[in-house]
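Purpose: get a first structural picture of the assembly so the mutagenesis plan has something to point at.
Setup: two entries, given in the order below. No constraints added.
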Amino acid sequence: MDDTDAFDVDEHASEHDPQSRARALQSLLVEEELLSSDAVDRIIATYEDEIGPLNGARVVARAWTDPDYREWLLEDAMAAASAVVDVDSDAIDVEVVANSADKHHLVVCTLCSCYPWALLGLPPTWYKTPEYRSRAVKTPRRMLREEFDVDLPGDVEIHVHDSTSELRYMVLPQRPPGTDDLGEEELVELVTRDAMIGVERLGEGA
Amino acid sequence: MDGIHDVAGMDGFGPIPYDDGEEETFHERWEGETYAAFVATLGNGFASIDEFRHSIERMPPQLYLESSYYDRWVTALTRLLLENDAIDPDDFAALTEAFEAGEASVPEREDPDLLGELKAGVADAYDSDASTAEPAFAVGDAVVVRNDHPEGHTRCPRYVRRARGEIVADRGTHVLPDARAHGRDEGEPLYQVAFDGEELWGESAEPGLEVTLDLWESYLEPADTTN
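Result (structure tokens, whole complex):
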């Protein structure tokens, strides 16, 4: 550790841009055979092309059309999700929480950026900011109104989930009214990432 | 630790930079490369997820706030790789300057088997299962969060300390982040604890607000002994 005492990581970070530092790190990892070029490309491609909010949307649409599936999803989310989308049910533990006419759920990680990535992909930038993390547990109604144009009626309770363990949370939004004629594939298109975080409210009481 | 990362309830950060629903992947190539370096660091066993989080928390507050999200990751990963002697500080410093001057490029090396091994290592780094411990609390119990301010890592944010809540779910036994962030694997019962908005934020709390967190047993004590 003597060598690292002389090198101040934080001071170095404040003096050099992250892209150059990231590439220096990557070069050394590849040289030391701790990383490979094809692994880098495949990791990036996975998040660009395969893992995203569409996984969550498919799960939600199935829950909207099949009461038994909905029950399973609320009971054992990743097992139920893996029956609908290509996700590894061991990769992450997720609990799905259901919105109702008188209850709204909101997800945050006040300490960092924990997020149900297997179902929603990488967290959006705003989710990771101190601006969102500081306000979501204290004044969620005002935050939803001022920042997300969601005016939650006074009689709707709000339940905020602060993700402090390795368990992640995803919101099951209400099925929007007037969608009785739509099939599962059409319903998928109505499900938004933001509704599955809880900063958008689908269905009644919006 | 009571660091700048523990922002819940702080005022004054201003408007949320909301992107109005834009799909999120990586904005720039180096952000994805940083994610790959994260996979390599955890996947090769240089750090657990808690050591990684704690490495970010060790950034000076001003640098933390000034850095973008993946910039923080670069800094945190660099610290962990240096502490594990996985990279040499002089090589790293020289290479950074070479990239900044546009005089370096990342070497190409293919290894098709590596990613599978790294993914298995990452799963280990996140694995929070621990051997079963007998829970001290049951669903429905009233608890108070201990007023502890550890210097190391903790997943008990400041805003719930001293607050009274109720156990609403027993999550089973999980590795205690406060221990694993410092290289020790210790299992503890984990509970979902619900707090009323007014308990956390006083009389001006928004009506009908409930906040839940997953908290480890050592963060909690029975409510009746502290009333």
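The longest strand of chain A covers residues 93-98.
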